[in-house]
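Worked example

This section walks through a single chain of length 67. The input is the sequence exactly as stored; nothing has been trimmed or padded.
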Amino acid sequence: MTEKEYIEVCPVCGSSHWYYESGGYTGKLYHCKNCGYIGPLIVEANQEMIDAIKQDYKRKKESEEGS
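Given that input, the structure is written out below as tokens.
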């Protein structure tokens, strides 16, 4: 993937492994297979943005485990 290519990823962990939880009249809900996020938002990101999301998620996860 080049810097100009965008893919849809989870806004919490940056994973591209998600699926539609529900949709239709009420709107779409996405479910991330990696972190369990369920919500109406999926981010279109390039590789640089994905790396930043993943680093932030890893840092938060490590700080939660250390508490």
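What to look for: DSSP finds one helix and five strands in the chain.
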